Amino acid sequence: MTETVAAPPPVSPPPSVSLPPAVPTRRTGVRRTAVTAALLAPAGLTVGALVLVPLALVLRNSFATADPYGGIQGGFTLANYHELLDPVYLKVFGYSLGMAALNSVVCLVLGYMVSYYLVGRPPRRQGLLLLLIIVPFWTDFLVRTFAWINLLSPGGPVNALTDALGLTHGPTEWIPSQGASFVGLVYAFLPTAIFPVYASLRGVDPALGEAARDLGCGWWRVHTRVLLPLARPGLLAAALLTFVPTLGVFVIPVLLGGGKHQLIGNLIVTLYTEFRNQPMGAAASVVLLALMIVSLAVFGAAAGRLRRAQRKGGTS
């Protein structure tokens, strides 16, 4: 009679022991805080020394009184801001806002056209064209502004072109003028308008434009109904990057415009150097800063509204 051997029962694996999460001790929290503070200290000290302290000094000086030589005498007065309400200065503020708005619109239109052309090129050619846009801006800003003086001078390349087209006859004074100053502003800020719009259009599927054309949309409707709404974030960023810095430009109106039509930046330089009124120059600087902050707030509100609209459209 054969004897059967029973198989041993299966051995179950030991139950997994879940360890409780490590509770950070007070020493660990202090150490992390110290490391974070040590990492942020250089940047914080730099920002404080180069941004916050000068800003506080300018703000304080804007309420000070001037000594007989135009220096800071101390005290506290609102007369500096009251004098900026003079129609002469208000005209400068209005002209600066108008010029900044016009420069932003022109840069947006040209930037969109250039970006649309770039997006339609092969990827390798896009990189080359972007490099051609960037290369001139490797040189100094002042040097590039002087180059426009040579281009717009009587008998220069622009004058030769207009003579060839029959628009002018002989040497023509293009500079100094308000038009030359505006051309310099557009040239200075056009690249800052191209890159945000290019980044937005690059993320748009080309099939959307082709589908719109197949459905009967013309060139204008393809851009206004399809591409422009999708490129709004880039257009908003481009408008911000052109409008705000244009308010403080002072080199271009002096070199290309002859200083006849001043922006706020030119007014600040004039108050500091020619009028030798440092408190009033500081007050004009604070007004410029306030205009920039208001502009940033407006563009920020527009960007937030755009994000909410996109989020609402995506969930609906």
3D architecture notes:
The protein is an all-alpha fold. The protein has one domain (79-315): MetI-like fold. Helices cover 70% and strands 2% of the residues. The chain contains 13 helices and two strands. The chain has helices spanning 26-61, 79-83, 87-119, 123-134, 141-152, 157-164, 178-202, 206-214, 219-230, 232-247, 251-255, 264-273, 278-315; strands spanning 65-66, 72-74. It has a two-stranded antiparallel sheet. β1 (65-66) and β2 (72-74) form a beta hairpin. α7 runs antiparallel to α10 (232-247) and α8 (206-214) runs antiparallel to α9.
Structural class, by secondary structure, is mainly alpha
CA radius of gyration is 30 Å
Spatial strand sequence of the major β-sheet: 1-2
Question: How many DSSP E strands?
Answer: 2
Largest beta-sheet details: 2 strands, antiparallel
The stretches of 5 or more residues where confidence is low (pLDDT under 50) are: none
